[in-house]
Design a protein that fits this description.
- Helices cover 61% and strands 17% of the residues.
- A 5-stranded mixed β-sheet has the order 2-3-5-1-4.
- Strand 2 and strand 3 form a beta hairpin.
- The chain is elongated and about 130 Å long.
- The N and C termini lie far apart (140 Å).
Length: 271
């Protein structure tokens, strides 16, 4: 009986060991957590008028910045991850140089573009924000509706047979003004739609090399500085002496008179 119990305990121990080994193996092959730099694109929900923008800042080796900017530019030009427009690029060379790129792209392309930008880089800062365009969109829609009604009225008036030549000219000028305003509002509406359907992505890289400022020592420059300081000190001393000399010239006879008066006063007391 005891032998059977020991055997059962041994089997349980073996099964537990195998289970733990399987868990450890499963954990070792589990995917690594995604980088903290990854930001998914945002799409405004139906009925909401939100324009999303993302800003990220990384530390990167300056030697890799030019290539990294070129990679993102090419990916945007080729629309590798989705619709994309390049808005601007800045790049400063040097050990402590930096680089910036601004893109407007489809929401589904944001995550992949950030993954490309964050390779071998350290995330310093990230921000995602949304601008509410509902008031602006509604204002443009109201103005467009008003202009369309005015345009229809002007066109109806222009078909009247009792109009004079001057009336037709005035109506034509007014109609041209309405059409110009309509074109401006159409451009604003297109810009609103573009902001609502895409995301603005700003990425900046700064050098990951520490600043090590060590001023160079030069005996010649140090001696030149010493001589200049000496001249400045002598000039300042001479200036102060010029102020003090008249005071000393006045103070000396006053001191002699004071001394003579004091002697006369003490001599009379002694007698």
């Amino acid at each position: 009986m005891r032998h059977v119990r020991l055997r059962s305990i041994g089997l349980c121990t073996l099964a537990l060991t195998m289970a733990l080994a399987g868990c450890a193996k499963q954990e070792s092959h589990s995917p690594e957590p995604s980088s903290a730099a990854v930001v998914a694109g945002e799409q405004s929900k139906p009925g909401a008028m939100l324009a999303y923008s993302h800003s990220l800042r990384f530390e990167l080796d300056p030697a890799q910045m030019a290539d990294r900017v070129a990679q993102l530019r090419q990916a945007c030009t080729d629309e590798r991850f989705g619709a994309c427009s390049l808005l601007g690029i800045e790049h400063t060379n040097g050990e402590h140089g930096d680089a910036r790129i601004s893109l407007r792209l489809a929401p589904e392309a944001v995550e992949s573009m950030i993954e490309l930008a964050s390779a071998e880089a350290k995330l310093l800062e990230r921000e995602t924000k949304a601008d509410d365009l509902s008031d602006s969109v509604e204002s443009v829609a109201r103005e467009q509706d008003l202009l369309e009604r005015q345009q229809r009225m002007v066109e109806e008036l222009s078909h009247r047979s009792d109009l004079t030549t001057s009336d037709l000219i005035a109506l034509s000028q007014h109609l041209a003004g309405l059409q110009s305003q309509q074109a401006r509002l159409t451009e604003q509406a297109t810009e609103h739609r573009r902001r609502l359907e895409t995301n603005l992505l700003r990425i900046a890289w700064q050098s990951n090399r520490p600043y090590d400022y060590r001023p160079e020592f030069s005996f010649g420059s140090t001696w030149s500085t010493f001589v200049e300081s000496l001249y400045e000190g002598l000039a300042a001393a001479a200036e102060y002496a010029g102020y003090l000399l008249p005071l000393l010239l006045l103070a000396f006879p006053i001191a002699l008179l004071w001394r003579g008066a004091w002697r006369l006063a003490t001599r009379g007391r002694q007698k």
